[in-house]
């Protein structure tokens, strides 16, 4: 049997095992919202659920990793990725309970209740008992476009099953947009298109988390990749820039994270900076403004983005550092809490990093500016994920999608993706909830080790050439 066929079947076996774990113990409506790994293990299918989750994730991750430099074509990558995703189209929600929040927010909108001012318990939502308790009284941080999508799903179907089908179809559309646009971005950066598509769409987070959950991040990424695709492939005519800006505006209207990409898109046009800014900015403002006005919701979702700050989990690097300092400080003072201060420092560092990355791309030579802008846009998303107060496993797909198309040095991103796939159980419970200590100190030690290794590498290779595949 050819090695690629073997890897394709191994990955499919992993997907089928994960899908089975979802059927046995996914994030179903009547699941135990207080479950732990131990309570799952004691359940009727507990050992099977945990075993299928561990082995299935491992098989898919191994096949994904092993094939990264063997992918024969973009078509092969897309077909294999779709094959691995297919089992998750038919499972109950798994890996997250966010879907129930989406449905409730859509129902709130249909009843004239502003989801940026109230939690889903204000209606109350018809499916309130399915929503994780921590999110029942919090406003939504999602943009107005996604609220309209959620409302349409509930309006058209009237129930959870139909809404789940629509959300998964919308997620598939976002993933399809990535498959269409990413090859052109990869070619513009001298990266094999088939490799980029493989890394972005076949990883262990895509099917079991992005699609099975499903999460709205795929919609944001789909709009963003299409916007950058237009700038790379179509040209620099005014209508192209306005359309690209409009797509970025729609991405922001799903999740504000996409706003990080707009300054870099301005550098990709080959036109004068002021003209590019006006055209792309006009498109973004028009689409974002139109959706906002159509929803009638205003900008209340922007302050609502802070609702996640109440989560204290070591999966966020700043939070892990703050937790570790807090553990140490409480040896001397029982009220010591370093988390808020470290998060504020991380926010300043994030802003500084984004500004640095933009100016580095801006200073690139005209013939290299487009490539530099794309790569630094990917790094900006990586910085965002690394320095924000809250991190969920599927966030790693934000930078991975663009890094796949802009660099061959992807080992760290792939390893982090595999590790992230193990952070969330099939029922949506996050392991970080149960191992705050020693989880936080271990993350800090891993971060220190990574910084030491990277510093030594740079000292050995101060002018390192473009990396070879690996």
Automatic annotation (TrEMBL):
On whether Transmembrane helix is a keyword of this UniProt record, the answer is yes
Keyword tags: Glycosyltransferase, Membrane, Transferase, Transmembrane, Transmembrane helix
Main localization (coarse):
membrane
Taxonomically, which superkingdom? Bacteria
Keyword Membrane, does the record have it?
yes
Transmembrane residues, as ranges? 7-25, 45-64, 76-95, 165-184, 196-212, 218-235, 247-272, 278-299, 311-329, 341-361, 373-396, 408-425, 437-453
The UniProt entry lists membrane topology as: Multi-pass membrane protein
Q: Where in the cell is it found?
A: Membrane
Return the InterPro entries for the record: MptA/B-like
What family is this? Answer: Belongs to the MptA/B family.
Entry-linked NCBIfam families: MptB
Q: What is this protein called?
A: Membrane protein
Species source reads Actinoplanes couchii
What taxonomic classification does the UniProt entry list for its organism? Answer: Bacteria, Bacillati, Actinomycetota, Actinomycetes, Micromonosporales
């Amino acid at each position: 049997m050819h090695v690629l066929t073997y890897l394709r079947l191994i990955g499919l076996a992993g997907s089928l095992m994960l899908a089975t774990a979802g059927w046995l113990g996914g994030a179903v409506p009547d699941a135990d919202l207080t479950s732990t790994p131990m309570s799952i293990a004691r359940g009727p299918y507990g050992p099977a659920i945990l075993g299928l989750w561990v082995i299935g994730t491992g098989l898919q991750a191994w096949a994904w990793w092993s094939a990264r430099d063997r992918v024969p074509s973009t078509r092969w990558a897309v077909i294999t990725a779709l094959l691995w995703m297919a089992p998750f189209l038919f499972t109950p929600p798994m890996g997250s309970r966010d879907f129930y929040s989406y449905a409730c927010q859509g129902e709130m909108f249909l009843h004239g209740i502003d989801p940026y001012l109230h939690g889903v318990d204000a209606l109350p939502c018809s499916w309130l008992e399915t929503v994780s308790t921590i999110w029942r009284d919090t406003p939504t941080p999602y943009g107005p476009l996604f609220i309209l999508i959620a409302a349409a799903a509930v309006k058209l179907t009237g129930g959870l099953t139909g809404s789940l089908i629509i959300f998964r179809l919308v997620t598939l559309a976002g993933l399809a947009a990535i498959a269409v646009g990413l090859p052109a971005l990869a070619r513009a950066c001298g990266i094999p298109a088939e490799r980029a598509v493989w890394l972005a769409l076949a990883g262990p987070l895509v099917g079991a988390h992005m699609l099975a959950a499903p999460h709205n991040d795929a919609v944001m990424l789909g709009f963003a990749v299409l916007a950058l695709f237009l700038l790379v492939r179509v040209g620099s005519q005014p209508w192209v820039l306005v359309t690209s800006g409009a797509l970025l505006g729609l991405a922001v209207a799903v999740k504000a994270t996409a706003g990080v990409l707009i300054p870099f898109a301005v550098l990709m046009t080959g036109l004068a900076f002021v003209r590019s800014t006006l055209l792309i900015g006009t498109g973004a403002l028009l689409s974002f403004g139109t959706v906002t006005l159509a929803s009638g919701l205003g900008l209340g979702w922007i302050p609502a983005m802070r609702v996640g700050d109440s989560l204290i989990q070591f999966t966020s690097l700043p939070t892990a550092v703050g937790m570790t300092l807090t553990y140490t400080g409480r040896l001397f003072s029982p009220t010591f809490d370093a988390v808020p201060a470290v998060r504020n420092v991380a926010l300043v560092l994030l802003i500084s990093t984004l500004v640095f990355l933009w100016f580095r791309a801006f200073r690139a030579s005209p013939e290299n500016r487009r490539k530099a802008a794309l790569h630094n846009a990917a790094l900006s998303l990586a910085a965002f994920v690394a320095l924000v107060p809250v991190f969920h496993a599927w966030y790693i797909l934000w930078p991975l999608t663009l890094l796949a198309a802009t660099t061959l040095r992807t080992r760290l991103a792939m390893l982090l993706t595999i590790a992230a796939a193990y952070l969330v159980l099939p029922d949506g419970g996050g392991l970080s909830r149960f191992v705050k200590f020693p989880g936080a100190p271990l993350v800090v030690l891993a971060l220190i080790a990574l910084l030491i290794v990277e510093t030594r590498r740079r000292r050995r290779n101060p002018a390192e050439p473009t990396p070879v595949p690996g």
